[in-house]
Amino acid sequence: MGDNDDGLGLSLGCAQNQPSLKLNLMPLASPRMQNLQPRNTWNELFSSYDRHLDTRSFHRGIDVNRALTTVDCGEEGGVSSPNSTISSISGKRNERENVGYETEADRPSCSQASDDENGTAGDSSRKKLRLSKEQSLLLEETFKEHSTLNPKQKLALAKELNLRPRQVEVWFQNRRARFSRFSGWGLVIKCDEHDCNSRELVLAKKTAKRFSGTKLKQTEVDCDYLKKCCENLTADNRRLQKEVQDLRALKLSPQLYMHMNPPTTLTMCPSCERVAVSSLSLTPTSAVAALSVPNPTSAIWNQQQPLPVSPWAAMQISDRPFNPASASRS
DNA sequence: TACATGTAATTTATTACATCA
DNA sequence: TATGATGTAATAAATTACATG
Fold first, then answer.
1. A177 and A259 housed in the same domain
2. Number of structural domains, chain A?
3. Are residues A108 and A42 in the same domain?
4. Which residues bind DNA (predicted)?
5. Is A209 part of a structural domain of the chain?
6. Are the beta carbons of A7 and A210 closer than 8 angstroms?
7. Measuring CA to CA, which of A55, A129, A187, A243 is 20 to 30 A from A203?
């Protein structure tokens, strides 16, 4: 991932190459995390959690929908689940069970205590808690650091947020789902290396970034992007048609060849299939410029120069010897 | 009030790993 | 030791259902 902190925006370039990682490492505290709220770093958080599993205060000014404590729930803090049979003492499973991981089935919803109090216990209807702004923010920040949580992290985060681990887990599942839905933007970013792009790529990035933080529907974004693509393709088509016309006219007056650049070696971008013009067809000045520019963005990839594609190969070169004199006359 | 939307929660299928015969 | 069956847990994807504007 890059240094960009824009959540989805930064994910664009890497989404395809970075499937969700299972991080077993204890995450390091980042400046970003340190800046967030009065929150401990991950290391502090986990060490604190390990040390003060039962005594730590979980309410840190977080506005929970329904305040609940370990006492209320009676299930936080590594209470072993009936399902957590010790069937293994090694590997991941051992790690999971050492932290008191629990399954969903064995824990009734604490956050719906009010409903139970209202006499709706056992009602099949499910209530939905609404995460507070602070909770969402912290979850997002954590997600930026790692899209998956190990059981320790999950428990610690759940305590930090005063949620059930299952709720944290569900949130991450849904967040990953959203992430992968939007990572379709990755196909736009494929060309990022040489920026074959241009306006629509920048637009797509901006839009995706915007989308990551707003309610803008993806369909709208898709539509915008496709419109831009269509416009660009139409412009390209017009330009190429004009070029064909020019070349046809040129074919009728081969004496103009001397004013043309030599045949071109074409390079095609494997990602976007755009064709780049090699330095052979550039003037010495422009060739040097193109080679010396570290970021091709501003160089040949963005040049709206005519693409001397097929004409050179397809055109029947006149057998007549070239006569500079006659060429100059015309 | 009906509707669209976002999202928490659930269900289902798949995969990986550990254990055991 | 290798192998297949079985159980458990994590996850993705699809779906449901609730809260909100």
1. no
2. 2
3. yes
4. 124-183
5. no
6. no
7. A243
Query: CB within 8 A of A112, min separation 6: which ones?
Result: A66, A127, A129
Give the integer Cα–Cα distance in Å for A155 and A100: 9
A159, A238: one domain = no
**CB of A81 closer than 8 Å to CB of A108:** no
**Which nucleotide across the nucleic acid strands is nearest to A115, CA versus C1'?**
C18
The residue that leads in pLDDT, A226 or A86, is: A226
Would A204 be classed as within a structural domain?
Answer: no
Per-residue pLDDT at A146 exceeds 60: yes
The C-alpha atoms of residue A197 and residue A160 are separated, in whole angstroms, by: 43
Q: Which residues touch strand B (CB under 7 A)?
A: A 87-93, 104, 109, 111, 126, 128-131, 136, 166-167, 170-171, 173-175, 177-178, 215-217
Nucleotide C14, nearest residue via CA and C1': A177
* pLDDT digit string, tens, across residues A117-129: 333 334 456 677 8
